[in-house]
Structure formats: C-alpha cells, structure tokens
Design a protein that fits this description.
three-stranded antiparallel sheet; mainly alpha; 7 helices; 3 strands; rod-shaped
C-alpha cells in the first residue's frame, strides 16, 4: 500500500499537539522555579529556559492552524461540488467535478454517489460514464417560457 493510500485512510489528528504544549509548560515551570530559587546573577539561565518553551508552544499552535487549513470542512467541499454542477449546466461527471474543484476523482465520485443516494441528485448513464444532475434543474428547464408544451 502506498503512502498516499495510507494517508487517505489514516485520519489527520485535529487540535493541539499536547506533547509539545506540555513540554513547553514544563520549561516555563522550570524557568519560573529556577528564577525564584536562583541567585539574582543567574537569571539569564531562567530566560534561556523560556526560549524552548516559547518555541514548543508556538510550534504546536502553528501546526494546529496548518491542519485546520488543510482539512477543509465537508460543507465547503459540498458547496464547491454543487457550484460546479450548477456552473456545468446542471449535470457533471466525477472527472469534470475533479477538474473544477479541489476534489480528487475518487472524492468527487464518493460525494456525488452519496448525494444521489440521499435523493439530492439524479444519476444517468451517458457514454459509459455516470452523469449526476440536479433533479429540479431539468424540470424547470422544460417549463421555461417559449418551449412547446
């Protein structure tokens, strides 16, 4: 199994890296205790302990922010997919959805299948590929003024 497939199956941990935050707080506590117990001339060491503390805590917050940015919420991804359907004339294939959104073909196919299973999209076979379309879009296009009824 390749690295990409393994990355798709393993969930990305969310939130802070509590090990880094914990180590940072240990350094802060050590600097505080050393500052209280040490003679006044050696407070430089206490400030030296603050450097790794700040670095560890800042790194944990930066990684958490980066993970939040990389994992876009499914609502935004679904909105992007539905916008792509609308922009594509009301119907789309998974490959077309992958070209117009940030989704892969596999992700687009899964999301489109899920929406079709929930009754939100209709599915039709066109030229060997599945085409997903908005069911209400076809009915409104037929009822437009100027069309023969």
């Amino acid at each position: 199994m390749g690295e990409i497939e393994r990355g798709l199956r393993e969930p990305v941990p969310e939130g802070l890296d509590y090990v880094k935050v914990g180590l940072g707080l240990v350094f802060v506590f050590g600097a505080f205790v050393f500052g209280i117990l040490s003679p006044p001339g050696t407070l430089v060491i206490s400030f030296g302990l603050m450097i790794p503390a700040v670095a560890l805590i800042a790194s944990a917050f930066q990684e958490a922010k980066k993970r939040r940015a990389l994992s876009s919420p499914s609502a935004n991804r679904e909105r992007d997919l539905l916008s792509a359907i609308r922009n594509n004339g009301g119907s789309i294939t998974p490959a077309e959805a992958a070209m117009e959104t940030s989704l892969t073909v596999r992700e687009a196919d899964g999301m489109l299948s899920e929406l079709a299973g929930g009754g939100h999209l209709s599915v039709e076979r066109a030229g060997g590929a599945l085409r997903y379309s908005l069911p209400g879009r076809q009915a409104t296009e037929l009822d437009e003024p100027g069309s023969a009824t």
